[in-house]
Predict the structure of YbaB/EbfC family nucleoid-associated protein.
Amino acid sequence: MDELEAGVRKRLFRLKDLADDMSGVRARQTSEDGAVTVEVDGTGALLDLVLTPAISSLSPKDFEQLVVGTANAAARAAFALRAELVTAFNAEVVE
């Protein structure tokens, strides 16, 4: 019984660690031309948006595509980090 309880406790603490790690996921992406930098959290929510003067030469459509594309790339990176955390967690739980 003690062994079972210890195993459950270990998994519970590891699950809390996973939740903490997931809440700390951040990803930052800068467009190829350096005009736009986006930072998102692990859910893909926008945390920071940095625009350089280079955006002044963009058309509204190009500006929109650059911001959205850069944000999309940042979100994909954040989701990949979350997936790595979950994969590592699953590997530990199976052991």
